[in-house]
Amino acid sequence: MSYLPTIQRFADNPEEMELAYQQAVKAGDADGFAEAVETGYAQASDNLLLAAWHYRLSYALAQARGRVVAWGWALPLGLLNGLLLWILSDDQRFNLKVVNPLTGEMVTFLPLVALLAAPISALVLALFLTAAGQQRWRRWLAVTLGLAAGAAYVLLLFPTIWPRVFQQQYLSLMVLHLGLLAWAGVGVIALARRGDAENRFAFLAKSLEAFVVAGLLAIAGGLFTVITFGLFNALGIQPPEEVVRLFVAGGGGLIVLVAVALVYDPQAEPAQQSFDEGLSKLVALLMRLLLPLTVAVLLVYLAFIPFNWREPFENREVLVVFNAMLFAVVALLVGATPVRGGDLSERGQSWLRRGIIALAALALLVSLYALAAILYRTAIDRMTPNRLSFIGWNLVNIAILALVLIHQARAGRDRWLPAMHKAFAAGTVLYIVWSLVGLLTLPWLFRGDPAQVAGLPVRIQQLAYERSEPILLKCPTSPHIYLLENGQKRWVKDIPTFEAQGYRWNDVQYIVCADLRAVPDGETIPPGAGPPPRP
Fold this sequence. Notes:
single chain, two-stranded antiparallel ribbon
């Protein structure tokens, strides 16, 4: 029986809707009524009565239906994922090398599994969600092709980046960028039916929960591995390297699927998942307990900033900690925000909202401080892939925190929770967009031309490949310093000119005078300074 005409007719009559639902329950067709409500809500999402029935039935029916973990799909696919990661973890056969195109010198930089673990695991996870629940095979194929294209793009274009330090930065960054795009691919499958703000936030919350569960399983697996190998070592038995990789990489691949299967029902939409029991409730409780502590820490930190104002401007490690903290704060805000208002009392919601607003405001101040520090370091030095990427990540985090505060100011206490969902749903899009922009544009922004130094001495070719600009050259027996630019050496007239250009003495590289003389002369610095002296 189709209840859609009834629902459309009584969309503004609460009493008739309740009566129709009770009749459907007596007829044993509550699921049919719920599906009709979903259809009606999709057609008229601005109808408050249909919205209320949508939330009521999606949760109540999910609870009544219960959930059986899809081990029939999770375990075989987990073993498949573990096998694939185990094969790729052989760093003797599968690794990423950076090669000097001029000299052929090769340096092994990164195991291939570090770059491809997230895309491969995401494809297997998407297969699990598709086979065990969504049955959207075209979406799974599109996600597969998209992630494969992204990984191939990185592998094909990273050798075109110049110099080597920028190649290495790009590859390291792509571990993060491909990981976020892989997560987005899983989201494309999970949100196949509904991609509204509530479902996107619910998927975000479940992702965080799955990450926590995977961490707990990894700790347990790590303890088991240590004890196992300890017992063998006590007997004087050294397990082969393949066995060690099987426990580490293979076990990690299995954990990913097990963690998701434990917390996520592939047959239900993200908003229909359980969030008020077991690990879901524990994770949310821990996040909410950390909220006031984090606010207190940020208050103390902000109080000390005037006394250590220049620390992140001069210390790279401090700036790295800043950025890690900002990612952690955003994750904490997501974990502390409930998916459903009924999970907390009205008073609890009121205090939680105040804590979230306070934390977002304090984190926004620290974000602006961190952005100023990285812009300053870029201005006095140079733009690099790392700096460009993290300028973007800072802007994304600032935008998310600002959205949280703006939406809360507009929504008020009654609509604060949908406003939070809306802010974070928009934030997920910003994360994905910047991940894609970084992946696609960095190889073109930092593209090099090895032909400019192809005919120069080998030592200078090596310097040009290994170091970022400016490359300053000097030979031991001469006081003169030269800038290597476009395959030519440009004489720096004197120390005041050197310092006015913003050059640093630790950037000066000593090479033999014969090699420096072999480099053609270019325009002096400043132009017209006279004939350049011979090194």
